[in-house]
């Protein structure tokens, strides 16, 4: 232990800490300066950036022994506060640079240190700095952050007044369509928003800390679990195993597809008979401190009988493979697609056919914040579970029977979340903390370190796709034959739904009259498949959008032209036979055409023997909503202070707050409310009605309609005969109810049938991506030098939020194309090793063009946005690599060694690549 | 458990807390908003003031169930921060309104709430508000706080700019004699200074929380201690008894008086054979959480054999009283005084004699902050003990043998302390936390709740004094006969020294040629005697300054005139036969004379039958230093940033920081340093050399000399031949040492001999007090309506600090006179029940007049100040009561019922009073 006198944010403090403790831990756990976020603990994310004696420092990697006595430390709390923002913070707010916001304090601190050294950095210098300092952002694609730093620097240089950065209300007070900052922006930029880990430090003093005993193998039978030694360890309140789970001890996948051969009850809360994947939880130690819990967890003895681990779909499909879930075949679901005529004859007569096989990898979500949750019994004795759940009611239903708790005694709450990108569409630790709280009767807290988080949460499921396209002499597509295999890991939840996505998105965007295909869901022992932004579509488009380029090449047609000839026009239908609700793609391609020509010219001009440049494009489509009759509920209530709106529009950084606010404000415009007079309750099943999960870009489209309806109903109730509105006082005086429910359901839709035909979504999002890449032919490294996106997401609610979704989604597409993977359980355990893109990996030349086609079935003409930008940008990139080098990458990611192998193959010097 | 959405300091937060938990606990323990201080936990101190939905609220008394969901809470952290002070905070700084600073956040928050309701309060309205809101301050006498609120209100009203409140540097940059704010002022006014409890929340996560098993009787034999059940309780790491103490298990009183009949080894760390007083510690439970520790402490079984409890000196002196410490008589020390001739003959020839008996009560220190401490092993494996110790080296010596630790392996550190007023001249829990850290090897933390604090820390020892004065026909004192008995509680530490104070201060101020007297120290079972400001002198002056008034009355002389005739003039000596070093008292009385006449006239004019007014005066003297050859050591070191000065000038709120800074800055003036370039290390035996304890007003006088000497030595080393000074770089380049030691010792002094004769102190402080009181003859309640103080404390280092000492010391004198007591163990357990004065109890009409007689043996002519204001103000008050009503109160406090009884006695209707 060592006592040091430190000046922290200008205040002299005595700090007593272990020399080996990290500065990050000391700041957070001891001093509760929770604006400094610690997540990756490997120095890969920069969320813990602080300034020590003028030097930017990663607090997670800095042991206290390296912090000199007398050091001056600046944390985010010392840079500015709500009400007294530093220009960097103000600029972050005004540029929407804080999405989930978890990395924002680190970026602010990092930028502060940069501007102290270099008050006039160029944009590239800002990007280089953030890259060098390992400031990672998973939400924004970095552009809004760089914009913010440039503006803040101008303010600090005195070139523009700070007020220029503040939001300027419109003349009519309307915020729909504006850049009104999201309500949480200031808290995020100042480090004052309490995320789950922060709340974890602020729980009641009797909270038990949990540590898991986890499997270190991927497949095994459990012979015995001995907790006796662990129970005797200091501070241990309980050691829990499956025997302590009061319910069915299974998370139910809520299987709704009748042809699924599993029953959805395959995922144990705590393993009983078998281990199904690496990291599976076998026991929970509950102790006074986390150190005690971990020490005791190490004393739990688990006797295992190893079983063969099937780490990919082909392995699990082998003839000799045993059933991972005995009684259920490893291939447990099949999804056909059959549209139009049989394709065999059509194909044989097609002027052109192309075919190839594709693999899209197990993309990790790589949120900057890891996973955590806690539970306690509330004042009505409800088991209350706080987590990063983006499907509060969904998870409620998925875990209640396993826990053995009456539904009305279970309450789910979403903490402010540092990103999920879909992984939290699945429950992770909700049931674990539930078990612990039920067994001990005390508040319990559990968090995962980053390695635990990566290895024990769901991932994007790899697809193995074989695809064949046929076109006539004019390049009009005439048929498609598809076969796709989904490696869904050991747990079936949503696996059938994901497999259906292959039928919905392979070939989407184009009118293909005749389609035949077959997909299947396979259980393996690798990470379970969890939703990830654009769910199922990146896998689908990798095949169809790559093949479109190959088809164009074969025809000697420009890829843009081929696409232009085939994209949806009135009379066309989707692969599911649905008529699109709008037809913006031709216009997008028209408008892209000159930019594309320019880009190709630039690529040609700037290419060298060593660095070859190319341009690629892709089309992306995604339905906004859950399949079929998706619906939501909300209420709006008049209060003394304005209006409160409640529903479960779960915010995981995408901007549920501004989405709900913008929608409600627009719906309530007649009341002329200031936006601050609208309160939102979006995260608590005890208060908010069921808006459904936040996923599938459904929230703005579906929940937004419910909010609009609730607001309409409220307005109706307030409206007097003369058209004026009753005040709160008048409503109370007249004894009228103050709260009004709103509902919406997509009754115009229908689920896809066994042939994949139906009208699954009320609205779709449409996009076209153009990537400009440079490939170093010596190293094989690909750099994305420019991205151009055309997007039609309907009428735009909030421009900052929508821009941010697109920047961030495309950035994930760049990672998907070039670097991201989760395959090797021992190697892919950190942000960097999993290939997260840093600022220098995302181009500064990044343009978004909107076509705001109003949607009939979206509130005020809006639809969703979140999935669109990750549908196919990666295919634009691999198409650009092909254009630059002639190398067709079919198995992602397009790592340098693969590109090099392709280059060698072309040069007649083949080396096996994939 | 209940989840609430609270807006705390403008930031929306989710707070999950037990409904029964106090808001104060939630703010501090859960949210670590430690600017809100919680100490008394009874709503008596206001340190926990926060604003909830616009309403000033005591956080300690407010259960979370009373905090509504959605409430807006403002704590000190939300009012202003270092670098962005609210005008209230700035005004507190500039007025020196934060001394120990522990109450300051509460006052700032309270004043904020007041000014929101009433932007233009009168001074009386401010006082009434603070009184009504229970904002208690023990340091400042409230005046600087009221000054600050009035100024801040003017700033907020826009009448004066905030800059007017800022410190204006003098033309020559000198801060000596200025109102330069103390270095800790901003931290105190913003709630950012971490006191012991705050540090306790910020210790490493593996820190064990301690709970004591304490005696609930005052005297008993211990038959058995059974810890077995406690050891099995959850979270318990160890249950420690005397058997676990590695050393002698005694705190040594370091007895230096050879005639003491005890050996000083009478105070157990953990009781083994006997319980000596209520609260004595018998066992320590070490657990993960304080709740666990307390639950387990309740399970420790202690078998006791009750013994008679001697709760006062007379009881312990009774013939049949058993020895409290077997082998040592209860009367264990005697102190004679013999000056001049035998007094018997002189008395018998004196023209006038007066005599009476007096009792001064067991005054409780009533710091707003209770007691706490913690211990751990540092990087050099030193047992490091943090506490409120104001005698770091002294306590080091007192506890090391009892702990059984090598002195070089023990390190003592003072935390920022919320006042001690001397109680921490004694070790309290230092040895307890030391035992626990040694036994467990882990960091340990212990704090006392306010009741524990009051009942288990030392108190001012009551004196029973019989005194007789003789004067000649001119009113010149000719003889004094004294007899005093000191109830010192069960522990002897410093008891002999305190008894000597009777010989030094009874009759001090006057030249009394012939004195005979005898004092004695008595062990009892009431609270042990600990130093308290003005140590021994309030007891002494109660007798002599009361009798001076009685003598004047008997002679028909004005009390001021009688004093004027007798105060020290050249050629006179103190009761100890020492020649005073300066003679300011005649001038003080001369200057007081017209003010006194005015006051008497006012009293006469404003007196009514119901409210009688009167004026009283008293003289007070106190030596600055420890008896005899007091000394200190310090060092000054040139650093890159300026100069660092180190010594143990322990800051318990009196202003060690500004004392040391002002002294060093003055000593180093040739270097033209900005005050911020001087760093201070005043609180750590591992770094700072022994400056001696902070008590007896010795610090400025003695430690100040050592600092001056160290600075002189540094200057000598820096001085070049041409008179210029070497820079840091030059010193390093020339390889010269950077650190220089300074020492000082009062070699001109000598200890008092067995007759109480000697030259104990190098310098004295001199004062005259005038009190104006109003006595309600119906209720007996006395109100002090004005205080006038003349003080000679030499050259003044810092005016804010010295003013503050005097205001605060006199306020404690008002409490001593009228309300404060610690007698009833069941009743005197809270601030209010112990009689702490609130703002309305201290007059706003409060004037201080300085006579700055330069002292030869003080640095730059300064001497001490802290003890002076509590030497005799209480006697001015009881003299004023006498003047107003004719009632002479001889036994303090002068509670209404005593005054009423006196009034009845005068009216011929006596009712027993004392």
How would you sum up the major sheet of chain A? 7 strands, mixed
Helix content of chain A: 25-40%
User: How much β-strand is present in the residues of chain A?
Assistant: 15-25%
Q: Largest beta sheet of chain A: what is the strand line-up?
A: 8-12-6-19-16-17-18
Q: Describe the oligomeric state of these chains in a short phrase.
A: homodimer
Report how far apart the termini of chain A are: 52 Å
Provide the gyration radius of chain A in Å. Answer: 27 Å
The most extensive contact between chains is:
A-B, 51 and 51 residues
The counted number of beta strands of chain A is 30
SS class of chain A: alpha+beta
Shape of chain A: globular
Q: What does the average pLDDT of chain A come to?
A: 97
Uncertain residue ranges of chain A: none
Number of helices of chain A: 24
How is this structure best described in words?
Two copies of one chain form a homodimer. Chain A is α+β, with helices and mostly antiparallel strands and 914 residues long. Chain A has 24 helices and 30 strands. Chain A has a seven-stranded mixed sheet with strand order 8-12-6-19-16-17-18. In chain A, strands 2-1-5-3-4 form a five-stranded mixed sheet, with helices on one face. In chain A, a hairpin with a 5-residue loop joins strand 20 and strand 21. The first copy, chain A, is globular, with a radius of gyration of 27 Å. The mean pLDDT of chain A is 97. At the A-B interface, strand 2 and helix 9 of A face strand 2 and helix 9 of B.
